[in-house]
Amino acid sequence: MSSSAAENRTPENSVDGGVVTQTPSASHRRTWMGYLTIPVILGLVCLGLFLYVQSRELDSIEQRSLNVGAITAALQEHVVLTAVSTIVTLIIAVPLGILLTRPLTRRIRPFIIGVLTILQAVPTIAILVLLAVAFLFLGFQAAIVGLVLYAIIPVLLNTMVGLEQVDGNVLEAGRGMGLSRMQVLRRLELPLAVPVILAGVRTALVINVGTATLVTYINAGGLGDIIVAGLSTNRVLVQIVGAALTAVLALLIDYIAGIAEDFLRPKGL
Amino acid sequence: MFRKSMWGTVVGTAAAATLLLSACGDGGGESPNAGLLDGAELTAGSKEFTESIVLSQITSKALEDAGASIEDQTGISGSATVREALESDEVDFYWDYTGTGWVNILGHTTKDAPKDLFKAVSEADAKNGISWLDPAPFENTYRIAVKSDFAEKNGLETMSDAAKFIGANEDQGKVCAASEFINRDDGLPGLEQAYGFEFSDVVELDLNLIYPQVGEKCQFGEVFSTDARVKANDMKVLEDDKDFFVQYQGAMTLRQETLDEYPEIAKIMAPISEKLTDEVVMELNGRVDTEGEMPEDVAEEWLEDEGLIAS
Question: Which residues, by range, are in coiled-coil regions (chain B) (predicted)?
Fold first, then answer.
């Protein structure tokens, strides 16, 4: 795998493996019609789902999961879980990525990445259960710990690759113009690394939407409540609604992140 | 010369062994069912929790003892999945519960479960081509449990006591429960209705996380009546004084066509089912859950000790 800015030559000390790439969108600024396509499709899916559920005779078990109150609560919990875990991931992973690309930390770099990769290899559900059993740690905070541990790696690696694929000549030119190291980082490196970093963030977001369905097992709610309720009572309709809403939410969040990418990308890249 | 002597030794040893074996034949047990199922090839299924696995292992060992060869597919996740596997010939038998049959398989809700649940379920399920063998006496029903010292301190014996207590102590009325119990009419919603109270908060957890959490995150917990971890974790099961919970008697289920082909299965299993009382099942569960033995070993040992299979 290579960074999504594949055209750029990567310096020798680049991180390899585990980098998230995305197909770059054709144009940076889409037409407004282009912006509308995905929300319209997702809206239609939700509408179809709603009408289908409306048309069915629901028994008492289905009614318990498929009512406006329950679905709204689950959606809200899920969005909060995803948002908070992604923000915490960013707060940890981006500065760590910057630190690990500085010459000072060259020695400990492989060690840190190794540890995080091992942590990511542990399934989230195992981390959640471990927290619950070993530390009797449950609920929202435990869920965030589990989600963050899982999402750190893609954001961290993309941050490092994004910074490292910046052309060394540009940085040198910056230093030559009298900018300090900090200024070079802020004005040149980070803006140029944004597209690759954001690809990692998008991935983290989508991973978190999916993984957050598991936290129902530790009293942290979310759309997993609906899916698991359907599974445990053998009600297919409930399972479908929970799974479809999760998919819609993942696509919607990815779409919003895509728009953010369009606007955050430095002009001329 | 050498050859001859070697053959002599072999023949001699064999003869001696045969004599020895036939001498202890009466003591160590020819199986009463030997040969009943010669040539039968069956696949064992079960749900993912200990009790279901142990019951299927007991069945497997008993059928093997009668000459069947059994493929082990136990430990399938979810009641619905294993039932699906039975209907589509993936597995040939597993143990289910009358209450689960009524609610999950037949799609009823249990506002008014019939008195004779086994009869109702087995008759209705016959239309789906599934046969329920005569049930065992044990019942693995839902119960609410609390820590023993908590029960003592607050004088909790029955669910009615708990309802009164929670009414007076809002801050100590949390219940830990798993998704299925929370969503089934024969679970939490119906229970609260029957006793006219509400838990102050529901903590939704994976089934196995409930036991360590009672007395921590919540005062009350959903448990299974035959789960050995109730005793191991020093819990008291509250009596269902209004008889709200439906029956969950265990019975072996298999496709009618399998039973038609091997009617001996029912005959072999009847004396075994009879011996599976609440105490026995709880003890077998405990040997796996708290003492860490393997389900197949526990099953085999119990059958041998009871003289149900040849040792």
Answer: none
Is CATH 3.20.20.70 correct for B142-237? Answer: no
Mean pLDDT for A134-145 is: 91
Of A241, A235, A136, A48, give the one whose Cα is nearest residue B107: A235
pLDDT score of A207: 87
> CATH assignment of B34-139+247-305?
3.40.190.10
Q: Do A234 and B104 touch (CB under 8 A)?
A: yes
Residue A106: the pLDDT is 82
* Higher pLDDT, residue A45 or B14: A45
Eight-state DSSP code of residue B205: B
How near does any CA of chain A get to the CA of B57, in Å? 24
As for how many domains chain A has, the answer is 1
Confidence of residue B5 (pLDDT cuts 50, 70, 90): low
Least confident of A20-24, A165-169, B24-28: B24-28
SS3 state at A34: helix
The whole-model pTM stands at: 0.79
**In a domain? residue A25:** no
Domain that holds residue A203: 35-264
Which phi-psi region, left, alpha or beta, contains residue B184 (left: φ > 0; alpha: ψ -120 to 50)? beta
Q: What would the mean pLDDT of B227-242 be, rounded to a whole number?
A: 93
Q: Across residues B267-295, what is the average pLDDT?
A: 95
**A63 vs B: CB within 8 A:** no
CATH number at residue A229: 1.10.3720.10
Beta strands across the sheet bearing B220-224? B201-204, B174-177, B220-224, B142-147, B235-237
Q: Tell me which residues of chain B have a C-beta less than 8 Å from any C-beta of chain A.
A: 78-80, 83, 103-105, 107, 109, 178-180, 182-185, 189, 203-206, 209, 212-213, 216-217
Q: Nearest CB to B184: which of A136, A138, A233?
A: A233
